[in-house]
Amino acid sequence: MEIFLDAYCIVDVTNHVVEFNVAFTELCGESYRKVLKIGDFCELLRTELCPQQCPGRQIVTSGKTLRLDEVTGSSKAYPQLQIILGGVPINNEGGKCIGALVTIRNVSAESELQKKYYERKEESVIDGLTRLYNKVYAEGLLLRVMKTSLRDGQSFSVLMCDIDHFKKVNDTHGHQAGDYVLSTVAQMLKGEARDSDIVGRFGGEEFLVILPKSDTAGAKIFSERFRKRAESTQIFFEGKRIPVTVSLGTVSFRSAWEPGIDAEQLSKELINKADTALYFAKANGRNQSCQFEDLPGKTTTPEKK
User: Fold this and answer.
1) Is 303 domain-assigned?
2) Does residue 24 come out as left (phi exceeding 0), alpha (psi in the -120 to 50 range) or beta?
3) Terminal CA-to-CA distance of the chain, rounded, Å?
4) What angle do CA 92, 93, 94 make, to 5 degrees?
5) How far is 202 from 274, CA to CA, in rounded Å?
6) CA 77 to CA 83: how far, in whole Å?
7) Is the pLDDT of residue 209 over 70?
């Protein structure tokens, strides 16, 4: 037992520690004599488990091996612990369980590193203000959806959304109000989306929505439903009401894969088409949703007003 870096101890049927290695004393923050004096496993190592559920008791009671991952606890040496508990029963010659060998692995450092990893990973894909996917990551997800669609022959739609007269909001109410409106609209848009839908901030006050397994009719329904919700929502900042409307453009895609097809180029073309429909909506009065498939000509982008 002494050569192991993990903490080990042997407990009897009363959950008292009767033998242990150096790593166990270091984990508890107590001397060899103090560990023997205190005795009770639950006093030496306090965990989220109540005394009746302590690993020693569970093993002795059930006579079965045990493994508990991601258990929180504390000791004199470690006020905050993240540990993996394990153990095996110790039986006498008659087969009766008389104690347990308990192992304790301190994974607090590993958990902290993992937490930081996920935080940094989130920072790389999430827009800090709106908590939506950022542009780069959203475009990457669009490419994946495109490839899936080409492989399976399923339709999907792309939607571009823009907050109308957003500059006026900043100029009239200030940039803090503008940020509040932006994040509010973003969360409203995310709330309208299905779990399978992808919502990202494309830049400024513009959003990108990807609707897997959605055809032209589905895109129209989604865009118009969200437009009405934005129009009817009362947004207040510091006691002042800020009226908000949005313009939207959609395009749908369905095609089978063929040799020579460039999925990345197709993805860019879809965004351009959705953008064309969006600009058309803005050029023709705003607070409306337009579909690329319904545009006259479908080849030119109206000048943004």
Assistant:
1) no
2) alpha
3) 76
4) 90
5) 12
6) 14
7) yes
pLDDT per residue over 234-274, tens digit each? Answer: 999 999 999 999 999 999 998 877 778 899 999 999 999 99
Q: Smallest Cα–Cα separation from 248: which of 207, 303, 204?
A: 207
Please tell me whether residues 99 and 143 are part of one structural domain: no
Whether the CB-CB separation of 17 and 11 falls below 8 Å is answered with yes
205 is catalytic: yes
Q: Which of 112, 145, 175 is the last residue of a domain?
A: 112
Claim to verify: residue 234 and residue 167 sit in the same structural domain = yes
Q: Where do we find the tokens 């540990």? A: 83
State whether 195 and 148 are in the same domain.
yes
What is the domain-level CATH number for residue 29? Answer: 3.30.450.20
The answer to whether residue 302 scores a pLDDT higher than 50 is no
Annotated catalytic residue within 205, 224, 269, 303: 205
